[in-house]
Structure formats: C-alpha cells, structure tokens
From TrEMBL:
Protein name (Swiss-Prot/TrEMBL): RRM domain-containing protein
RRM domain span: 6-80, 245-319, 355-429
Record keyword Repeat present: yes
Domain of life: Eukaryota
Stored CDD domains: RRM1_PTBPH3 (cd12687), RRM2_PTBPH3 (cd12692), RRM3_PTBPH3 (cd12698)
Lipid metabolism in keyword set: no
Comp. bias (Polar residues): 187-196
Molecular function via GO: RNA binding
Species assigned in the record: Thlaspi arvense (Field penny-cress)
Entries under Pfam families matching the protein: RRM_1, RRM_5, RRM_8
Keywords annotated in UniProt: Repeat, RNA-binding
Location of the region described as Disordered in the Swiss-Prot/TrEMBL record: 187-210
InterPro entries the UniProt entry points to: Nucleotide-bd_a/b_plait_sf, PTBP1-like_RRM2, PTBPH3_RRM1, PTBPH3_RRM2, PTBPH3_RRM3, RBD_domain_sf, RRM_dom
Amino acid sequence: MAESSKVIHVRNVGHEISENDLLQLFQPFGVITKLVMLRAKNQALLQMQDVSSAISALQFFTNVQPTIRGRNVYIQFSSHQELTTIEQNIHGREDEPNRILLVTVHHMLYPITVDVLHQVFSPYGFVEKLVTFQKSAGFQALIQYQAQQCAASARTALQGRNIYDGCCQLDIQFSNLEELQVNYNNDRSRDYTNPNLPAEQKGRSSHPGYGDAGVAYPQMANTAAIAAAFGGGLPPGITGTNDRCTVLVSNLNDDSVDEDKLFNLFSLYGNIVRIKLLRNKPDHALVQMGDGFQAELAVHFLKGAMLFGKRLEVNFSKHPNITPGTDSHDYVNSNLNRFNRNAAKNYRYCCSPTKMIHFSTLPQDVTEEEVVSHVQEHGAIMNTKVFEMNGKKQALVQFENEEEAAEALVCKHATSLGGSIIRISFSQLQTI
C-alpha cells in the first residue's frame, strides 16, 4: 500500500457519479477540503483535512466494498500528500473560478446545439461566446461568460443536472482558457458579441484547437451534417476516406431475413439506395448505401453483430453499385430513409447494436403496456419507460441482450402501433 496521505485516490468513477456522491461517501470520516474530478480517466482525488481521517476511511472500506449509484469504486492513498493548484492542473482543469466553463454532456439521447446550451446557461449571466465539439470524453462545449461570477453561479446551479428528463447530464468544470476564439456563427459555435460572422464551415472543424484536429472529408453532399454531428472529428475507427458505397453482408439467417429487415438495420447508418439478396448464396446480401462514408459507418458498427442466431460478416463489396432489376429491392425514394432529415442527429447516434432501443413517433395516448406488447415476442424485456419530449411521446425498452434488441428493431421499425408508424433506433443509454 502507498504511504499514508490525506489525499485519497478513487477509481472507477463513472460519469453518473457526481461530486456530491463522493462527498456523501467520505464525509462520515472527517472534513473534506478539496475534490478534483478526473473525468477523462474515470477517477477522482479527494483531500481530507488530516491524515487520520483518510486512514479511517481506507480502514473502513477494507472490509466494506464502497459503491455509488450501484457502481463499485476503488480507493487507495494517493501519491500526493497535498492537492495544490499545480497538481490539479496536471490532472484536469483548474479549480480556480474562471469566466469560461468546460461542459461535458453525458448520456446524450438528444442532440444538443448551441441554442439549447445558450437557453440553459444564459439565465446566469450574459454569455459572450459558445463553442461545441466532440472529444474522446464525449460531446463538449466551452461557454464564455462576461463575468467570472456568472460562470461560478452557473456551475453551482447546473453541475450534475440533466438538460432533459433522465438524460443529457451536465458535467461542468472551470476551463483554464483566457478567451474563446469563434470564427463562425452556426449551430456548433456562436459569438453573441459579433453577430456578423459567417456561418460557413467548409467541411472542417471551426475550432480544431478545441476539438479534434480538422478532418478533410471526401467530397459528398452530407459533409456539413457530418461536421455538425462530430464537431470536425470522426468516431474512433472511422477514416472518412472510403469511397465504396456497396456492402457485402454474409452469414445471414436466410430463413428470417428479408430486404426490409436489412433496410431497417442498415438505414441506421445512412440512406439505402438498393438491397439485393443473392439467390445463389442465400445467406449473402448486397446493400448499397448513399455514399462511402455511410457504408464505412455500417461496416464499422455492424461487423460481428448478432442477428437471428447468426454473427454477421459485413465488408466492403467489390461491386461499386447494385444494378437495378427484378432481383433487387429499390429504396432510393423511400420516405423511411432516415438521413434525408436531421442528418446530423442521425450521424451522432450511430453506434453498434445495444440492449436498449428508443421509440419515437408514438401515438400520444400510448401506454407502457402497449409498447411492451408490441415487441415482447423478440426477447426478455428488463425495463421500459414511456416519456414525453417536446410534447411528443417516446419510449425506451431494455432487452436482456443486444441480439434480442436488434431483432425487435429490424422486425418492428416502421410498423404501425395505435395508428402511428413508429421509428426505432438503438439507444446509447446504459440504464433507464
């Protein structure tokens, strides 16, 4: 064990765990003088008033597993004897108040724009500038107030709060930047002191210094939507340079899969032009996506996914496109293609199949029982929730595993429930 110290190092601190949760865990052992959340590492450093308080805490938790919000956390003495401002800078942002806030949004079920953030943060003072971007820690924003006191008030009032019911949780730290530079006024950045800035982003990050490095996208119609979704960066493992639009899917359960079910699955990652089941190889199919970027998303997120008892193989095809004919199914004009509207939102929620599916466009009077009844044939349902967002009914259904959720999605997306054609997608939420 490390040398005794009044600084305690806490590991496995999930995004759902707040500063208050940690304070409540350790306050029985003495006065806590400092707390630093190391969000990028899922860790925290906590300084007790004296070494004996820290020893009492560690001795107690030697025999009792500390848990917060159902998650086991692990504690040990820190190698630091004292938390100073310099040490805090090594690990995270300064704890010194600053007029610029660094905001991370966790459990982002709904898209968060500059306008949404401005609505949330402006009650605490005049917001001069606002920049959003995508980093490894998730969706983030830098918010510059006119006065430091306004930033401090906003942090105190909003830390750990949800923008929407049950999701989009705010994690707020003081930034160590002195001034934000904003080059464009659009849905990703805004300078409220200079309304005359241009809106054009030219397919690159407006703020490569804040987010990931600017990415040069292939020439495609949806460049602006991709930039809006990913803040100028791209998801890990996605190059953005693929120009092959057609995907070969193999190891399909040919007794259970048809073109429409494949459409429901692959349309999560882009618009579908055409799908062809290969008659000479019944467990193979070709899927032509709207462009190479969408095809790359589908290959990346669906390779190895389980569907109807089979593990899918998804690779780029040697065929540049699918020739129209009686043996192929055309979807190019389908109003069920998801990326004709709200493309940025749809890109942002691309992910591998999860245990949780999200329902939208539900009838206003729908009940939880009706939602469950609609999909329960596909597997064991662990949890459900029906809720309202912007006046529209939505639902979450959690299955026992990803395969059951995928089966429910491919079979029940775009079906009728209570007279409404429902929309189903995978949710990245871990729990309801």
